[in-house]
Design a protein that fits this description.
Two copies of one chain form a homodimer.
Chain A: E1 9-16, H1 23-39, H2 43-52, E2 56-61, H3 64-76, E3 81-85, E4 97-106, H4 107-114
Parallel strand pairs in A: 1-2
Antiparallel strand pairs in A: 1-4, 3-4
């Protein structure tokens, strides 16, 4: 059996699925969420996560309320969080909340918050 | 008419379309490309781009060779570039080149390199 790398840290990028976005649009929102959460993250966590290979998991959320709730829970747990509002130049109305980035943080800590969400 | 924000800077995230990846997988690759290119970018460019709202454009590439060529052209033009190889834990073989992140850089400078690529 091949050896699989073990990731201690990860980021979770959570994208709304109740609004119509092309795959390209979802990619942009996920990248916004990743950079946004990273900008607010602890520097040592960021370093460790980058050194490991910056694991990211992309998940689905049913609606905007779920993103707000997950953000509040994450911040309460000391995990960096970045809620993304679209500039609205394409596809969807300006100011629409599209995605949430969480972490980097320890995988187990994120799993306690996002463990029930399906993969996108 | 509404006022549209003017973006001086952007990032281009270029994803291969000749390998089979789910939309969630593409999102993760685009986010890797964004963070990767950002880590190599000039600090002042990074600051200016973040302050503007971190514009990102997600584009398609036909194959791996195109990503290598675009990377070489961008680096020659002084634009940060990050080629993404997948860890291969899901969907595709380990080490597969999946995406390329370019910038942030001035929009016009990136357009000269990526202007012919279609949106994802």
């Amino acid at each position: 059996m091949g050896e699989e790398p073990v990731f201690v840290y990860k980021q979770c990028l959570i994208v709304r699925t109740d609004i119509r976005m092309s795959c390209g649009k979802k990619c942009a929102q996920a990248a916004h969420a990743s950079v946004g959460a990273l900008e607010h993250a602890d520097k040592n966590l960021k370093k460790a996560w980058l050194a490991e290979g910056q694991k990211k998991v992309v998940l689905k959320a049913n609606d905007e309320r779920m993103l707000h709730e997950l953000k509040a829970i994450a911040l309460h747990a000391g995990i960096s969080a970045s809620l993304i509002q679209d500039a609205g130049l394409t596809e969807i109305p300006q100011g629409t909340v599209t995605a949430l980035g969480l972490g980097p943080a320890k995988s187990g800590d994120l799993d306690r918050i996002t463990g029930n969400l399906p993969l996108l």
